[in-house]
Amino acid sequence: MTNSETMNNSTGSSEAVIKVENVSRWFGNVVSVSDVSFEIKPGITGLLGPNGAGKTTLLRMITGLAAVSDGNITVFGESVRNNSSLYSRIGVMSEHETVYQFMKGRDFVKMMGELRGVHDLDNAVDKAIQLVDLADAAYRPMGTYSRGMRQRMRLAATLVHEPDILLLDEPLNGADPRQRVHFQNLLQSYADQGKTVVLSSHILEEVEQLADTVLLIVNGKLAASGDFHAIRAALNDRPYHVRVVSDSPRDLAAALVKLESIDAVNVEADGEIVVLSRNVRDLQIELPRLAKLADVRVRRVEPLDDSLESVFGYLVEG
Amino acid sequence: MGSVYKLTLRQLSGRWRLLITLLLTALPVIMGITWRLIEGDRFPDNDFQDVALNGMLAGVIIPLVTLAISSAAFSNEIEDRTLANLTLSPIPRWKIVVPKLLGALTVSGAFLVTSAFITSYIAFSGDLDAVLAVTAGAAISVALYSSLFVWTGLMTTRAIGYGLLYIFLWEGLFAGLVSGVRFLSLRHYSLTVMHRLDDRLFSTSEFLSTGVVTGAAVTVFVIFLALSIRRLRRMDVP
After folding, report:
1. Among A73, A88, A316, B82, whose CB has the most other CB atoms within 10 angstroms?
2. Strand, coil or helix: B207
3. Residues A112-135: pLDDT tens digits?
4. ipTM over 0.95
5. Which fold has domain A238-317?
């Protein structure tokens, strides 16, 4: 059984609001998404994968912006493509940060509210803008906004009709740390109301902090899906290269090599150690203890293959 | 629909776009003034009608200005990737296309119809029959070209290039050389309207009947409007 098969079984049984069944999308001879199936339930779901994996194409098909080449997608039991009435229940924020430069932020949110048939429009607009903490800049043209401000005003426009489903493509691009925290709290409170949030990202930690459930997309295929912690545990069990910089590399190497989960310890010419571990969790716990026992001062610990590509490569190979 | 219409008006009213449009639409007016200064107070002859009304206004200025404005109604949103703001709304596609077309018509029509009115008013010394004929012909021409070029802007990112080929090859060259092409020439429809409303205009030319031109013009307008709605329903929105 592969890692992806193991983790696919971890999906719960509450009612799905988005169903993706055997969906493929190709552009000429290039297959962007290949035979992907999954269900999304209320709560926060992270669509995780390296750049070019097919996340955006998948999200665009879920929103109905792009057609599927094969398969079927339903939202609330209805086909989403050419079903404009569904958009009163869906809010979408694409990855593109372009805005109407000439338009004031508040006018933009108001226009989006009008298009979505929002009642009590002015109150809804004020509420959405306050949610993203941009009331002070609401009457400025969006052309004068910073990247983070544009993203937040776009989020306000996405939230103005209080949709049941939020689909966000790389929403944290351009956000500073304070904005990220604000954004995370906002999405969490949204999910706590029983709504569905789907966000895509290529950054593992970003999804880890937000999502209850993760869909891992690699090379247009669903590599794994389910509870984030199950996937994280699988990641911890994979072979891992770690560079350790210390003031006494040979003593530390001698201590580390005795660990059962360590496959190899190499002392480099520059005095740094590169450790190959099969259990990174074990290494995280044991390294400080062994260093203390050997009276070695550790200056830096650095994962060498923590990129998403290597993580996904491992998961796909199973 | 009001939101999309207002948005389109604002998008198509950039300073440079309006300035260039103003300069282009001023050319027939300048020609009308020049003609009056040289020829004095007499009904314009065939040369003026052929050069200023047919060649310049109907043949170049109206199609060029409507191409620049109408094709941008959608193509700018596609290039900026803002079209999804509209298509992800719970409104039918025709409620996006129609206000976009009306917005393009309003901006280009404001300049072109005014230009046609002032040019003919000056050249025809305020002869109301001739002035209204030229203005109505120009207005119908703007509507037809707008419907065509709004669709072109949805179909391709090279709308300006294809539009220029159409204007100069089809309308400019083939429609003048091959008599059968006139039946499928928007410029010819426009001139026919002018002639039918005032038969002193283009009196030496041959025109289609009023019924044929009316039917053809309505068909062209509706077909390209319907094609735009169909395209917006079927396309992958960036």
Report:
1. A73
2. coil
3. 999 999 999 999 999 999 999 999
4. no
5. Alpha-Beta Plaits (3.30.70)
pLDDT in tens, B155-193: 999 999 999 999 999 998 888 788 778 788 999 999 999
Tens of pLDDT, residue by residue over A244-294, are 999 899 999 999 988 888 888 998 888 889 998 888 778 888 899 999 998
- What does R_g of chain A's alpha carbons equal in angstroms? 23
Chain B residue at shortest CA distance from A85: B90
Residue type, B128: L
Q: How many domains does chain B have?
A: 1
Beta-ladder partners of B169: none
Q: What's the gap in Å between the CA of B5 and the closest CA on chain A?
A: 11
| Unique residue bearing structure tokens 């209080």 | A162
Burial of A67 (0-12, 13-18, 19+ CB in 10 A): middle
Q: Which residues in chain B are closer than 8 Å to A157, comparing Cβ atoms?
A: 85
Nearest chain A Cα to B14, which residue? A102
Query: Rounded to a whole number, what is the distance in angstroms from the first to the last CA of chain A?
Result: 8
Task: Parse chain A into domains and list their residue ranges.
Answer: 3-234, 238-317
| The CATH fold of domain A3-234 | Rossmann fold (3.40.50)
β-bridge mates for residue A240, sequence order: A277
Distance in Å, alpha carbon of A98 to nearest chain B alpha carbon: 6
Residue B200 lies in domain: 2-234
